[in-house]
User: Fold these one by one.
Assistant:
Number 1:
Amino acid sequence: MHAPNAPRDDRRLTGRAAAVGILPTLTVAVLVFVLAYDGGGYSLASRASTGIAVWWMLFLGLGLGLVRFLPVPRPALAAGVLLAAFAAWTVASAAWAPSAEAVLEEFNRVLLYLGIFTLVVLAARWVPARA
């Protein structure tokens, strides 16, 4: 114990901050393990199922009110807009590409990247910086 006027050791996280900080860490660890176990996530089926899971997490989080709309930093917003523009350019390339299937596979990949980026930007706002 320390005296009432003594400085506190602020390096330890409180119970709530530790729980909030550990949940995203465990989620990412489990997701990385599952993708690694599935051949590294290189197959189209693996990417598609991961993309569906990521977008469902976003839609459910926003739809159920689990995510509050906090201001997004300008660099993150700029990067997100550029990634969305890249997704639009990728799908537009179906007009001149020799294979529309290959375009849709790459569009699937870019949408996965966009979903993960969006999830990370929003999740970074949920977790306290100290966690």
Note: Helices lie at 15-37, 44-63, 74-92, 100-126.
Number 2:
Amino acid sequence: VIETEGEAKPPARSGHKGLAVLDCLYVVGGWNAEFQFNDMWILNTVSNEWTMVEENKMGAAFGAPRWNFAAAAVFAVPHWKIFVFGGNTGDLNESGNPRGDYVNDMMVLDTGSNAWSRPTTLGAIPAPRGETDIVYDTKGSRILTFGGWANKWFGEMSMCKVADVVGPPYSVNSVEPAFGPTTGGTPCVIKGMG
């Protein structure tokens, strides 16, 4: 058991996602017997301190509370991205809607600003579902989804190209010297990320 600090700590939940990004653990969404969540908490694993992300950054862009969704953390320059796909949302009631509504949207968190966005998706979008998984294919810069549940089991695989969102796995910040002979042969120092 790890003792954690912070003015507040996330309430107990299930159906959420926990994603490791550098020295932090991002905990997003979920539900329990009392509430459905659309919040995000970050645990700094060095100081063991929890922080809740401001609601004005989470609520509108993340949307309604969500659980049983898929998520993947992706290395990107200058900041990691977290992709969220599908899941369950909406009001729960035993008679008409015991699991909520299934969704098939994709959201992206920029971990530098901790702000969510909803990129435009094109092509054959997978049917709404929960209980699915996604992985990031670094070689093809794409998110792969497989399976899931929405009153029946799904067994197909889908692919979404996300190179425009993730960008290249590097950035060049400076080149020294800035000027040199055009004939080549000048030793250079290139500084950047990745």
Note: Helices lie at 55-62, 163-166.
